[in-house]
Automatic annotation (TrEMBL):
Record Gene3D superfamilies: Vaccinia Virus protein VP39 (3.40.50.150)
Superkingdom, taxonomy of origin: Bacteria
Stretches assigned to the Methyltransferase domain: 50-143
Name the UniProt record assigns to this protein: Methyltransferase
Database matches in PROSITE patterns: SAM_MT_TPMT
Single GO molecular function: S-adenosylmethionine-dependent methyltransferase activity
GO BP terms in the entry: methylation
Keyword tags: Methyltransferase, S-adenosyl-L-methionine, Transferase
């Protein structure tokens, strides 16, 4: 698995499911992302619809649902989705969990007030950046937000490269305005160590109005 990622081959659903069946992958922290918790604490957007890309075992999706967002969370690893479903049931959280490739799922023209990911952009940008940007364009609308969380110190995460502010501005800035960039550190009880990360809050701007001549 790690070797295939280093060659920048997009892992298959079977690849990811194997990682989850063998235990918890290194990017799973067992708790909601502190960057997401801070974002929700500050109430930077009104509650509405959320699409989570690559939800894993659902810690963040469940938190969003508990905060009364209308959550659709997608992952194509069956074991991850099953664990997310169990987590949601135990928490009494209502959300839509989807077992599917985020690029192949039929969104039926739906757009979301917030698109969220933790680690998804960081992985996908290596081989599917243009495809990700196309998806983000289709599932957002003017006024939508995109919150992307990435990890630093990537020696702990096979196949990952660190995301920089320049990456975010150059890649995601093609579609969004960067509203806020933050670094964070937290203790992961599963990793048993402190983890550094970077979060980017982006906004899809309203079309500029031109004055009639």
């Amino acid at each position: 698995m790690a070797a295939s990622l280093r060659k920048f081959r997009a892992p298959s659903a079977a690849d990811w499911d194997t990682v989850y069946r063998e235990g918890l992958p290194p990017w799973e922290m067992g708790i909601p992302s502190p960057a997401l918790e801070e974002f929700l604490k500050r109430e930077l957007i009104r509650k509405g619809s959320v699409l989570e890309l690559g939800c894993g075992t659902g810690a963040d999706a469940v938190l969003l649902a508990q905060k009364k967002f209308d959550v659709t969370a997608i992952d194509f690893a069956p074991t991850a989705i099953e664990r997310a479903r169990t987590r949601a049931q135990r928490a009494g959280a209502r959300l839509c969990l989807v077992l599917e490739d985020v690029f192949l799922y039929n969104y039926k023209g739906a757009t979301f007030d917030l698109v969220y990911d933790c680690g998804f952009y960081q992985y996908v940008r290596l081989w599917e950046l243009s495809r990700l940007l196309d998806l983000l364009w289709r599932v957002t609308k003017p006024g939508s937000y995109y919150l992307s969380v990435s990890y630093c110190g990537t020696e702990e995460f096979p196949g990952l490269t660190s995301v920089t502010e320049d990456n975010i501005r150059w890649e995601l800035g093609r579609l969004f305005e960067l509203k806020e960039l933050s670094t964070f550190r937290f203790y992961s009880p599963l990793q048993r160590k402190e983890i550094d990360g970077i979060s980017a809050l982006l906004y899809r701007p309203e079309p500029k109005r031109t004055e009639k001549q």
